[in-house]
Amino acid sequence: MNPADRYALIASLFSEAAELNPTDRERWLQARSSDASILEEVRQMLEAHDQTESGLLDHPIFDRSATSDDASLDDPMLDRTIGPWRIVGVLGEGGMGIVYAAERNDGLFERTVALKLLRPGSDARGLARRLESERKILGRLEHEGIARLYDGGVSDGLPYLAIELVDGDAITTWADNNRLDTTARVRLFLQVCDAVAYAHRSLVVHRDIKPSNIMVTRTSNGAPLAKLLDFGIAKVLEDDDASGLTRVASGALTPSYAAPEQFRGEPVTTATDVYSLGVVLYELLTGKRPYELGQLTASQRERVVEETVPSTPEEAAAPGRARQVAPDLSLICLRALAKEPERRYASADALAEDLRNYLDGLPVRARPDSVAYRTSRFVRRHRIAVAVASVVLLLSAFYAFQITAERNRAREAASEAREAADRAEAVAGFLEQILRAPNSRWYNESEATGPDTPIRAVLAEAAARVDRDFADRPDLRADLHHILGDTYVSLGLTEEARVHHLTVIRLRDSLYTRPHPKIAEALYYGGWYLADGDYLKSVEILETAVDMQRQRNEGNNFPFMIQTLSNAYMLFGRFAEADSILHEAVRFVEDEFIPGHDGFRYRDAISAGLAQDLVKANVALGRIDEARRWLAYSDSTVGLLPREKRYVMVWQRLQCASARVSLAELRFEQSEREALECLGVESSKTASRPFPGSLIANVEYPGQMEEVLVELYDAWGRPDSADVYREAAAAFVARNDSLQSRDRDRDLRSRNRGR
Amino acid sequence: MTDTPDVTQLLRQVSDGDEDALARLIPVVYRELRSLARAQRRKGTSDTLNTTAIVHEAYERLVRSSVDYASRNHFFHVAARVMRGVIIDNARKYLTDKRGSGQRPLPLDEAIVVPDDPPERLVALDDALTELEALSPRQAQIVELRYFVGLTIPETAEVMDLSEASVKRDWTAARAWLHKSITGTA
């Protein structure tokens, strides 16, 4: 062992032993090392450490505390008046200037503030600009987690800022001094996330988040309160940055907390702050930083941050220490520390959300390299052929799922394993051929003829190949026709879908004996084409499919089939039947679906939707109390959903369900308000966690809103208002995809009305 | 100060490991610190020095434009070095002179303040610190910043870009080790 390594070992043994009770140290040391000379040196250090009155290095060689009075007396600023403030002491000195403690001088009220001034005589132009920028930014921020701006201006030619004086410690120090456990640390950190999220919503990126800029103090009732300080290099996102602040900032960055893009001098986003928050969280949890950069040169630091992977917090937290870091928490931290900004949480809100998931014992969304991430990377790499590729990816995603399912089953029987392998290989070959086709034939065309052509061309090519390539595999042929049909439907090409869906039914009926889930699926998707315009017959086919699925249930289709059937029942006014099968579906979902499965709130989104249909059915049946119970069920389930775009529709449908109940109780104004909130008004009282307006604005709201509004205004005696929505409501029914065909829905609707 | 080299540029070179730049930087920092110390002494009534203020001020004066963090770290490192050099040189000189003339020498420069600590002890500390430097340069730097510049733990953490917890840990260990070394050899 070289002397430096030997000393490192001695120092670390000393540090840990010094924290122990003196009587326990000897036994602990014996257990850790058998090297007598090392142990002796540690013992001597501990002895020196325990001599409280040693005097050595207790004070700096020139003790500042002994000189501080004199120094303050020396300070020409002391007792000077700056605006309404009188300087009473020095709080600190930093690169940018001096921070003084100052009191209000005009006797209006008592208040001590931190007064930020530029150092007199320093080259002040750039710094003055930063002070001015900080004043503007703080002026738009008002949050209990951000040290607030009291005053700012220029006095006798000196620019100054008066900022709330936070009497506390840096968050890491505070947590250590108060011996917080991991949960308490996370809760304290959440306060910081909330403050940063607030700044982000105000389009401000802090850019210098680190423990010394997060002071923790206590509120009047003793609760800890974290406050974010120093927006000196913060940036307003909408600025074009003509001021050159970015350059100043890239010089002033704090390497240990700076994101890789800051080292590279690239634009900062809210994800940049998320990275710094990740470092702070890492340090709070483990007492260490992800990278130790202190002794490295500038270029070495950059390389370390860009290229190395930190230990997980789980590993970094010293084993055997009182504080341990759970794997989920570790994952959250690493997600925030991802090197590519787009792989981090997009905002402090999203980070906070996942931390709350962790605290609530819910699954967290931080998971390394998800399939979705890899897919998005793939698409980005092949941007040119993305239109073509998306269809192919759709096919391959389905088959990846199928192959996994097959693989699981294959564990049970060897023969089935061979079968699955054959199958996967056959499909992979097929996909490869389709995947390669654009490279040769359509690549040039796709640029010439616009993005729509290649999708249809790929589908046509696949459709042409399926029967030829899989002549001896009718089961695979059926599966592929199913994908083709479904893809056509989702593209709105319902007529092109017809032949494929009918082929699926024919093939599967000849392959399997009823009842069989594969046949149920074929009927569910293709029943409309089979009924060929006969609406009652299509409902009967749907009933057959549901019944078949009920007898041999495999896969996840059942609740969706029931939801489709219940919607059909309700169009025909058969609300009691709808109510009965929806009950069955909710029970099924609760029993069979895994909560928070796979990181997605799939189950919650589905059961919330089913409950909303139950609200509709029960309102129609006049059972308002029952409707209210289902509304509460849906409400609490929606509350579990992350505030993400894909769940906005579920929340909007909840608003509509709520509006239905209010309408049934003749509370017209409330009903109107609830329905209109679908459009993005944020003040929802219904959902326990409303979705932010920025998300809602990007989502096409559900047609139920118009449907409810028409009923509401008709009942309210405002036919003119009702007329505004009547056409749109009809259009909604027309585009409602639950029965797959626009025509059928429109006709069903008119038939229902005609009764 | 027209002949002053571009300190900002020198600092960049130092932070990328250029030894020559370091050799050119030290006298510049030394001159600046000394002139600031003189000014402070003339102005003040105290017979001690506010070293922290001097180093900060020297930084402000010498480094005109913004530099990256590594450069700032190196500036403080250099300044701490200079402080240590001046104080220890003076202590050694005192010991030599004492042996020679038996008289306590007057400071040669009004900028130099005689510390309270006995010179024998300062010299012993300097020797132990040189030894520690070979074992853990980081701990030695923390001691220099804390003891010779007078930075607090948070300030040291800030300058060195370390967490306060690791500064505290290193500082405690370094102090115990130095103490052990000095008393062991005394």
**Shape estimate of chain B:** globular
CATH fold topology of the largest domain in chain A: Serine Threonine Protein Phosphatase 5, Tetratricopeptide repeat
Classify the helix fraction of chain B into a percent range: over 70%
Parts with pLDDT < 50 across at least 5 consecutive residues of chain A: 64-73, 240-250, 368-417, 439-453, 682-689, 735-755
Q: Mind describing the biggest β-sheet of chain B?
A: none
Helix content of chain A: 55-70%
Tell me the count of domains of chain A.
Answer: 5
Q: Which range does the strand content of chain B fall in? A: under 5%
What is the terminal separation of chain B in angstroms?
A: 45 Å
Rg of chain B, Å, rounded: 17 Å
Outline type of chain A? globular
Count of extended strands of chain B: 0
Name the CATH class of the largest domain in chain A. Answer: Mainly Alpha
Average pLDDT of chain A, rounded to a whole number, is: 75
Class from helix and strand fractions of chain B: mainly alpha
Ranges of chain B where pLDDT stays below 50 over 5 or more residues in a row are 102-110
Structure overview:
The complex is a heterodimer of chains A (755) and B (186). Chain A is globular, with a radius of gyration of 33 Å. Residues 64-73, 240-250, 368-417, 439-453, 682-689 and 735-755 of chain A have low confidence and may be disordered. Chain A has 32 helices and eleven strands. The N and C termini of chain A lie far apart (93 Å). Chain A is of the alpha+beta class. In chain A, the strands form three sheets. Chain A has a six-stranded antiparallel β-sheet with strand order 1-2-3-4-6-5, covered by helices on one side. Helices cover 61% and strands 7% of the residues of chain A. With 186 residues, chain B is mostly helical. Chain B is 75% helix and 0% strand. Chain B has helices spanning 7-15, 19-43, 51-62, 69-101, 119-135, 137-149, 153-160, 164-185. The model of chain B is unreliable at 102-110 (pLDDT under 50). The interface between A and B is large, with 65 and 73 residues.
